[in-house]
Recover the amino acids of this structure.
């Protein structure tokens, strides 16, 4: 039964997220959405590792990108058990959210679906399942709060 539940959760997460990416449209600019997400991360007591401004990096290289920022954050109490389940989870943790302006001029917030990551790293159904649910719920909440959507 646990195996069936895990398979369903992984398939649902993959189906709900194109290529394992969950995306929300923000009501705010890239800068404002990023500020909101950083405030949420700090408020929750998570570690903010870095905010990378991809557009600024492109400018320094003589290239052009629409506004785009990557926020890298995490919680070792939550992330460590995932890496204990599968060492290769360290490739995808700490967690990241990409805030970018799409070709239509809309600000988007995107992140990796935890169910997709579990499948990608062949994490068994019993390993950290409750934490996966908690992570999925937290990421969804953070993204929607930063984007100003319900």
């Amino acid at each position: 039964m646990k195996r069936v539940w895990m398979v369903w959760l992984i398939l649902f997460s993959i189906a709900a997220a194109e290529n394992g990416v969950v995306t929300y449209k923000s009501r705010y600019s890239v800068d404002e959405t990023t500020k909101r997400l950083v405030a949420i991360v700090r408020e929750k007591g998570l570690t903010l590792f870095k905010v990378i401004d991809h557009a600024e990096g492109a400018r320094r290289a003589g290239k052009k990108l629409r506004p785009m920022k990557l926020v890298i954050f995490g919680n070792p109490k939550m992330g460590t058990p995932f890496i204990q389940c599968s060492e290769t989870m360290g490739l995808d943790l700490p967690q990241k959210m990409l805030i970018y302006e799409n070709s239509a001029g809309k600000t988007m917030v995107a992140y990796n679906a935890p169910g997709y990551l579990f499948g990608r790293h062949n994490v068994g159904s019993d390993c950290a399942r409750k934490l996966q649910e908690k992570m999925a719920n937290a990421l969804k909440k953070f993204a929607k709060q930063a984007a100003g959507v319900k």
